[in-house]
């Protein structure tokens, strides 16, 4: 998914510099246990595994020395298995969980320095969270659940209900406005949770494994809903998941966590094509590479008679689509950007991607510029 930046939410200061990150996190730790503040910065403790740290100190480091930035308009996915620290991490961003040490900034403002009033404003207006357990008010209708955040902000009844109606339609709940949560399916309830978050027009949407309890087909529908909303609005999203296929489908970038630390951060293509270690390699082993890797990584230099022949493909064309193009034409295809042929892909290069074979030597385009190997 391509990050969009057409619409900027939040403070006027944020709108002045669209290149500035929304969230900037540096050296973040969250340690649970006695005298937790002695753990960050201690090289001896930092070298211990989670089990060793608990045995030595009685403390658990849920988040270990994590640094990253969330770009404006991107879907930033934090992925990891249960216990990796991802849910703790997303809660520290708005201080639902207080960090032990480190820095967190939103639009350049120090989150850790915010007083209670400013922090309340951050949670009510700048950010909104969508949880796994929906958190709907059972005695309220769909419309009143969606309007709840606006009510908390002090908006008048008529105005908030009118706005809630617009959001209900946006997430595909029209006709269900007066139903109670118990009259809805799981997918419909999660749409209400998403609509409630959208209603306050936050700069950032935070998702904490929102679809993990849903049936597979409903889950896919909700993923498509997130993709659609992001395409239409370009709103910044931080999405927590333990599901690799969900991460690859939704994320502009993925941060993979293990034992509270960051194992790898990159685009889906970077992580699948160049896993940082055996742990990541095991994670992506069963991923259909052709559905993630682009022809930019699969191409080879064009021979002199190839640079002007063959169908043209954009550099971000997925290998699975290039396979179809090559099969239809029976010849190579050119990878073209701004009218210039960067390289070509043919049967052998595309099959190498599918097989996970690095053909290594062919890593320059027709003008000698280095390109990434498969």
From TrEMBL:
Gene3D superfamilies: P-loop containing nucleotide triphosphate hydrolases (3.40.50.300). InterPro entries: AAA+_ATPase, ABC_osmolyte_uptake_ATP-bind, ABC_transporter-like_ATP-bd, ABC_transporter-like_CS, Gly-betaine_transp_ATP-bd, P-loop_NTPase. Residues 48-284 form the ABC transporter domain. Keywords: ATP-binding, Nucleotide-binding, Transport. GO terms for molecular function: ATP binding. The keyword Protein transport does not apply. Belongs to the ABC transporter superfamily. This is Glycine betaine/L-proline ABC transporter ATP-binding protein.
């Amino acid at each position: 998914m391509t990050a969009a930046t057409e619409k900027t939410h939040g403070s006027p200061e944020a709108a002045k510099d669209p290149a500035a990150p929304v969230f900037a996190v540096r050296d973040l730790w969250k340690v649970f246990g006695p005298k937790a503040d002695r753990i960050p910065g201690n090289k001896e403790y930092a070298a211990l595994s989670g089990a060793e740290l608990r045995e030595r100190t009685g403390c658990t480091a849920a988040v270990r020395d994590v640094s990253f930035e969330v770009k404006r308009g991107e879907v930033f996915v934090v992925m990891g298995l249960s216990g990796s620290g991802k849910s703790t991490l997303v809660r520290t961003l708005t201080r639902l969980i207080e960090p032990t040490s480190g820095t967190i900034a939103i639009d350049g403002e120090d989150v850790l320095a915010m007083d209670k009033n400013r922090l309340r404003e951050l949670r009510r207006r700048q950010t909104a969270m969508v949880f796994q357990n929906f958190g709907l008010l059972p005695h309220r209708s769909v419309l009143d659940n969606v309007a709840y955040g606006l009510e908390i902000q002090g908006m008048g009844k008529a105005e908030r209900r009118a706005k809630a109606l617009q959001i209900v339609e946006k997430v595909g709940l029209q006709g269900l406005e007066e139903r109670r949560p118990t009259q809805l399916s799981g997918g419909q309830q999660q749409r209400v949770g998403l609509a409630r978050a959208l209603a306050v027009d936050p700069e950032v949407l935070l998702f904490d494994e929102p679809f993990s309890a849903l049936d597979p087909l409903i889950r896919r529908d909700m993923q498509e809903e997130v993709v659609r909303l992001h395409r239409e609005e370009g709103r910044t999203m931080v999405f927590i998941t333990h599901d690799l296929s969900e991460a690859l489908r939704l994320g502009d970038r993925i941060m993979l966590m293990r034992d509270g630390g960051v194992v790898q951060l990159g685009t889906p293509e970077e992580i699948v094509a160049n896993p940082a270690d055996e742990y990541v390699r095991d994670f992506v082993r069963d991923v259909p590479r052709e559905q993630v890797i682009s022809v930019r990584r699969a191409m080879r230099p064009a021979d002199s008679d190839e640079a002007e022949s063959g169908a043209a493909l954009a550099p971000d064309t997925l290998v699975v689509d290039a396979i179809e193009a090559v099969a239809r034409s029976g010849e190579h295809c050119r990878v073209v950007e701004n009218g210039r042929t960067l390289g070509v892909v043919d049967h052998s290069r595309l099959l190498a991607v599918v097989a996970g074979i690095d053909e290594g030597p062919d890593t320059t385009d027709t003008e000698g510029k280095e390109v990434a190997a498969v």
